[in-house]
Amino acid sequence: MSAYEDLMAFQRQTEALSQVAGRLGWDQETMMAEGSAPQRAEEHAAMASVLHARRVDPRVGDWLAQAEASDDVAAANLRHIQRSYERTAKVPAKLAEEIAKTTSLAHRIWAKARAENDVAAYLPVLEKVVKLRQEEAAALAQGGDLYDALLNDYEQGATGAEVEAMFGALRPRLVALRGAVLDQPKSKGLSGAFDEAAQLALSTKLALTFGYDMTKGRIDKAVHPFSSGSGIDVRITTRTNPADPFNCFYSTIHEVGHACYEQNINDAYLLTPLGSGVSMGVHESQSRIYENQIGRSRAFTGWLYGQMRDAFGDFGIADEDAFYACVNRVNDGFIRTEADELQYNLHVLMRFDLERALISGDLAVQDLEAAWNDRFKADFGFAVDKPSNGVLQDVHWSEGLMGYFPTYTLGNVFAGCLNEAMRAAVPTLDADLARGDTSKATAWLRENVQTHGGLFEPKDVIARACGFAPSEGPLLTYLEAKFGGIYGL
Ligand code: ZN
Predict the structure, then answer these.
(1) Per-residue pLDDT for 85 more than 90?
(2) What range does the domain containing 16 cover?
(3) Number of H-type helices and E-type strands within the chain
(4) Of 182, 290, 304, 174, which is closest to residue 245 (Cα–Cα)?
(5) What is the CA(49)–ligand 1 centre distance, in A?
(6) Mean pLDDT for the stretch of residues 409-421
(7) pLDDT at residue 1 greater than cutoff 90
(8) Within this chain, do residues 140 and 229 fall inside the same structural domain, yes or no?
(9) Of 224, 254, 265, 364, which sits with the fewest C-beta atoms within 10 Å of its C-beta?
(10) What is the mean pLDDT of residues 379-407?
């Protein structure tokens, strides 16, 4: 066997074990009894230590030194393995251990502080998390930019400076659009109660409509919807709220976007480094384009209106146009995860600026709450009323996930670009969507993005699919046209 073949055989087992570790997490959120949590924590820790040992196994270094790539696929496999090997080697084991311990503690302290609206109880441990992540970033960056090193864990090749330029162009136009929309009369919202079984039945129909293969996946309920797994075992979760069936439907469509990306990767890449989505940003582009540009379009919501009338009878929305406005209703709100398509990115933009300043040392953890509240007031026009609606709302920083937030908006930016290219390639798109037929749209995304898995670098996947380098322009044009239309601007 060649060094490359030895390496790939070893890597295949690592990938399989990593899927097992992920499935333990899925089970914990869907099936596991609460009393089993302490044992599950040990099981997670054991899997993490096995995976870590395999990633730093000296044989991997030897194989990498000898392996030769015979084609593009082999070159991409080697690139991914090399990167992961070097990343693990750069961070001292003691620091990695300290980060794991501190973030696990910080997560518990954050949850209690959020429940009690007690920022002061959280800041000391957050300070430790920031300091540890700065140390880790310094080890990874080796003289380069600290924030870029963290960002590259989630979005290979992206830089803070380039994201700052993109987000800087988004912000004034989104703030202006938000203000103009909220000056108009609100569209009518839903009222009444919607049967849970009927919500779940329509949610499954939507998943199948978007091409989710349920012979190789399943849908369960969880508190927070997520997608889990790669290859031929990709599972999603959803949730229901009697007053808000859109929460169920659009959570499902979003997670189906993530799941279809994983399911539609070239079969030949199964259990290899190319066999999962290439970055958080590209992943989010798939969930967002399914959810928003397709799922919340005028054409598709016209079809969904009929489906909802069949499922729930007359639910108080007069016609397809009113339903489209209802689905895309813009409201004031504090919470990122509840934000509409227009305002969502403003939540992300402020988190990006704040966490970048925390990592560079320009913003002290003690000043974070004040900085959050000032920025929120500036962009949203009203004041944060309590910390659980402000700086304590998100789990990310307690878990040390600095560098993760921008990938949500990068996903939206990529989705904007892909939407423009997809609409040019599929001229009958709206007529198809009006019949509930997403097959041409999802086929275009499968062939141009999803099938490649990890073969290309994140930005290159989008540029190859679109025929132009990704920028914020298409997303802005789309949002201004869509909300301008709904609100008569
Ligand atoms: Zn997502």
Answers:
(1) yes
(2) 3-144
(3) 20, 3
(4) 304
(5) 27
(6) 98
(7) no
(8) no
(9) 224
(10) 97
Based on its alpha-carbon atoms, the radius of gyration of the chain, rounded to whole angstroms, reads 23
Is residue 131 domain-shared with residue 209, that is, in the same domain?
Answer: no
Q: Alpha-carbon distance 489 to 487, whole Å? A: 6
Residues in the chain: 489
CA of 202 to the centre of ligand 1 (A): 20
Domains: count for the chain: 2
Report the half-sphere exposure of 195 (CA within 13 A, side-chain side). Answer: 11
Same domain, yes or no, for 282 and 328? Answer: yes
Q: Which of 15, 255, 284, 355 is catalytic?
A: 255
Query: Which of 144, 174, 192 represents a domain boundary (last residue)?
Result: 144
Residues 42, 89, single domain; the answer is yes
Domain boundary among 99, 115, 144: 144
pLDDT in tens, 235-277: 999 999 999 999 999 999 999 999 999 999 999 999 999 999 9
Q: How far does the centroid of ligand 1 lie from the alpha carbon of residue 405, in Å?
A: 11
Distance 337 CA to ligand 1 centre (A): 10
447 is catalytic: no
pTM of the model: 0.97
CA of 399 to the centre of ligand 1 (A): 18
Nearest to 390 by CA among 349, 329, 333, 332: 333
30 and 179 assigned to the same domain: no
Looking at the structure, do residues 281 and 207 belong to the same domain, yes or no? Answer: yes
| Residue 258: per-residue pLDDT | 98
**Mean predicted lDDT score pLDDT of the chain:** 97
